[in-house]
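STRUCTURE:
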C-alpha cells in the first residue's frame, strides 16, 4: 500500500515538473525581444487592457517621467521650447480606435498588448511640462459602441460623443488629436534616423468636410516640422474621400482636429516612444508659433 502511494506521489511530482517545464517553454516561444524593461513597466501602468496585471505588480510601479528620462538623456533638450503656463486645457487627446495594438511583448509570465493609448500619455506628459495643458480621454469608445449596439464602423460616431462632451466641459480646448496606428507591415512603418529607430507617421485628412482646407493647412504645418527634424519619418498626408471611407473623421468639429497614425501593428514600444517624443516636439513648435 505504501509502495503504491509512493509511486503515485512520484508520478504527481513528475507531472508537476513536466507541466512547469512545458509552461516555461511555451512562454519562451511566445517571447518577443524586450528592448527596454522600463518601457514594459510603463505599459503595465498605463494600458487600459492590463488592469489585472497592474494590480498584481503595483510594487514595480515606475512613473512615466522616470521612464522617458531614463530612455532619453537628451529628453529635456529635445523639448526645450520656452514654457508658457496655461490655466485651462487646450489640447485633447483621444483614440477613435483605442484597441489598435503594437507588437506583443512578453515579460516573465505576462503577455502584454500595448495599444495606441500609450502615445497619448507620452505626448500628454511632454505638452503639460511645457505649459500646454493637455488632457487624455479616459472614457472608452468601445463602451459607447456596446451600449448603443453599434458596430466597429461607428467608432468615429462614438468618439464624436466624447469630443463634444470634452469640449462642453472644457471650452478652452483648441486642439483635438485622434491617435491611431496603420495596418501595414513593419517594412512600411519603420525608419532609422541618426542611430535611433522610429515608427513612421501618416496624417489623414477627410475631404468630405466642406471646411477641410483649414484642417489640411494645420496638418501641413505639423508634417513640415516632422520632415525638417526627422527626414523620412512622415509618410505624408493621405487625403481620403469617396465610397467605403469615412471622409470626415470628425474634422468638421473644429479646424484643429488632427488624425495621426503612429507606426503599425509590428512596431515595437521603443520605436513608438521615439516617435511620440518627435511628434511632441513638433506640436510644441507649432503651438508656440500659433499662440505667441
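SEQUENCE:
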Amino acid at each position: 500500500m505504501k509502495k503504491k502511494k509512493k509511486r503515485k506521489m512520484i508520478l504527481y511530482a513528475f507531472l508537476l515538473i513536466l507541466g512547469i517545464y512545458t509552461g516555461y517553454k511555451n512562454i519562451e516561444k511566445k517571447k518577443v525581444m524586450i528592448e527596454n524593461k522600463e518601457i514594459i513597466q510603463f505599459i503595465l501602468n498605463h494600458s487600459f487592457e492590463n488592469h489585472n496585471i497592474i494590480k498584481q505588480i503595483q510594487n514595480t510601479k515606475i512613473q512615466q517621467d522616470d521612464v522617458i528620462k531614463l530612455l532619453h538623456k537628451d529628453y529635456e533638450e529635445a523639448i526645450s521650447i520656452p514654457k508658457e503656463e496655461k490655466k485651462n486645457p487646450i489640447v485633447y487627446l483621444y483614440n477613435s480606435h483605442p484597441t489598435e495594438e503594437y507588437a506583443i511583448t512578453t515579460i516573465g509570465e505576462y503577455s502584454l498588448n500595448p495599444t495606441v493609448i500609450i502615445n497619448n500619455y507620452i505626448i500628454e506628459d511632454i505638452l503639460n511640462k511645457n505649459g500646454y495643458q493637455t488632457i487624455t480621454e479616459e472614457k472608452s469608445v468601445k463602451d459607447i459602441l456596446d451600449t448603443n449596439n453599434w458596430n466597429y464602423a461607428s467608432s468615429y460616431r462614438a468618439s464624436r460623443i466624447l469630443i463634444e462632451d470634452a469640449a462642453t466641459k472644457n471650452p478652452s480646448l483648441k486642439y483635438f488629436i485622434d491617435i491611431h496606428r496603420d495596418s501595414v507591415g513593419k517594412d512600411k512603418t519603420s525608419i532609422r534616423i541618426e542611430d535611433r529607430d522610429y515608427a513612421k507617421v501618416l496624417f489623414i485628412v477627410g475631404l468630405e468636410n466642406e471646411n477641410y482646407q483649414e484642417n489640411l493647412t494645420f496638418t501641413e504645418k505639423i508634417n513640415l516640422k516632422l520632415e525638417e527634424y526627422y527626414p523620412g519619418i512622415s509618410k505624408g498626408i493621405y487625403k481620403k474621400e469617396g465610397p467605403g471611407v469615412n471622409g470626415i473623421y470628425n474634422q468638421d468639429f473644429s479646424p484643429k482636429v488632427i488624425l495621426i497614425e503612429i507606426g503599425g501593428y509590428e512596431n515595437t514600444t521603443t520605436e513608438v516612444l521615439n516617435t511620440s517624443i518627435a511628434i511632441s516636439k513638433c506640436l510644441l513648435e507649432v503651438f508656440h508659433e500659433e499662440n505667441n
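REMARK: The longest helix spans residues 2-30.
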